[in-house]
């Protein structure tokens, strides 16, 4: 059911505002804050020197990143540029803002590196204070899978504490939801910080929600389904368990309207400007 602190569904800026500025960069987060979103959604990986870096992939995507020389990254070589094998000082030398993602023609491109999670939080907190905005919330996705342990990322038992330490040191842990498709991440996080909000992400083949919960071993606070999976049955099952619902990634105004009327808590979108227009009845 909707969060009582929000009179309308929360607007979750996906990777900041990927449709408008380069994903997971400071310009994207700053623009999303300026627009007036409620929650920043972002992804984190880990560098060779143990820094928590904001990035969707644990490597430099050939679609959106360039080598320190300015050259494009060959698609067949992108996995060689493994963030987990590079110190952060070297990671900062790659540009991931000047190359427009082909799926987002409205994107404004500016020079940008992959920032640290700490850097993002500090920038967002300062900007919200300057604008006189209430403190924002953070949805932080931990990107892991069993086959990547020790190759592209630490195992969850090492990864999760790094993320939580940053959130606690920056004073925002009470406003963080930790997201993951990997049940191991949620299991590790629960005892480390019992009050932390956890979100189970789901995609692919539809399964009854009860199966996920049984496999996980507890009921997380939030369910984040691919919006294609959001049926009345799934919504009812989540509500029966007391879970909030935040579908992703919704970029169509008509679909936003449908979901707003379906009792969801929030919507994750690449175009927070579009959702703001929808909720303010400007479209």
Describe it.
This protein is 30% helix and 15% strand. The chain is α/β, with parallel strands linked by helices and 283 residues long. It has one domain: TIM Barrel (Alpha-Beta Barrel), CATH 3.20.20.190. Mean pLDDT is 95; it is low at 1-6.
Index terms:
alpha/beta, globular, 283 residues, 30% helix, 9 strands, TIM Barrel
The total count of helices amounts to: 9
| Rg from Cα | 18 Å
Could you state the CATH homologous superfamily?
Phosphatidylinositol (PI) phosphodiesterase
| Global outline | globular
User: Please, what is the oligomeric state?
Assistant: single chain
Architecture in CATH?
Alpha-Beta Barrel
- Named CATH topology: TIM Barrel
Instruction: Determine the N-to-C terminus distance.
Output: 25 Å
Count of spatially separate domains: 1
The stretches of 5 or more residues where confidence is low (pLDDT under 50) are: 1-6
What letter string, H or E per element, gives the SSE order?
EHEEHHEHEHEHEHEHEH
Pfam families: GDPD
Domain GP-PDE: 9-279
GO molecular function, one term: phosphoric diester hydrolase activity
Protein name: Glycerophosphodiester phosphodiesterase
